[in-house]
Amino acid sequence: MPKLTAFVFRELKTPAELRDSFALRYRVFSDTPGLAHARSLDAASALDVDGHDRWSRHFGLFARREDGDALVAALRVTGLDESPHVGAMRVALAEYPSLEVRLATVPDAPLPMLGYHVERERIGAVVRAAVARGERVVEAGRLVMAPEYRRGRARVQAMGLARAFVAAVTAQMGFVTPADWVFSNCVAGHRAFYRAFGFRDEGPGAVHLEPALDGIAVVTLRGCAAWLDPGTRVMCQSLAAQLVRDGELVLDGAVSAAGNAAPVT
Question: By CB count within 10 A, which of 100, 106, 153, 182 is most buried?
């Protein structure tokens, strides 16, 4: 196998990269209890697509080797504005007319969690109030990592990659294409991880058993750049400057035993 030289974060803008992200989502979710029968999964194409993708900006983490980049993690950030790359999504799905129709379908709710969350009425009221104040609200979701980076000895590396990926997304959404509020759901055991990136529990009912995930304990979080601790804020501002300068963020391919991927400046 060609030598790994770095991990690279960037927004997904081309048909090939967007299709790869839909394929990675399908690969992960179709093998995940509670998600394997999700309506967004299309077995014929082996892609995961829904109407919210049209209203999302998509981001990826790539393994950069001597023979090119390969997508190893992906995430989407859904907002109230149509993606500037919806044309590339249509090209990515052109082989599957039913998925083009799915992409064009207007979702029942502006953010994914407002279509299924057990407290969707309360959270919807919070979102509507923020929008009425002129604030930009988004939901970060569909976070996936390739299974081969999460098994065995690779799990230590995955911890560092996940932290680097979320730090890069925080830099993007906090300082490059800033959102006033970022909502997200996570498994209860990951709550402390996201708190390090400016997220807090969203209300008294933040922790709940999610029927859509076979009753797994889930935490609903809300974050913003103002809630970052000073050290994390400085780090994310530095990453944001690199993203603006280079259009991507290059991370050192050598991940330490502690699981930290260091940015290359």
Answer: 182
Locus of tokens 């390969």: 70
Q: What's the pLDDT tens digit per position in 72-115?
A: 999 999 999 999 999 999 999 999 999 999 999 999 999 999 99
Burial of 167 (0-12, 13-18, 19+ CB in 10 A): buried
Ranges of each domain in the chain = 4-252
R_g over Cα of the chain: 18
78: enclosing H helix or E strand: strand 68-78
State the pTM of this model.
Answer: 0.91
Q: What is the CATH number of domain 4-252?
A: 3.40.630.30
pLDDT digits (tens, 9 = 90+) for 23-79: 999 999 999 877 888 899 999 999 999 999 999 999 999 999 889 999 999 999 999
Q: What does the alpha-carbon distance between residue 121 and residue 142 come to, in Å, rounded to a whole number?
A: 22
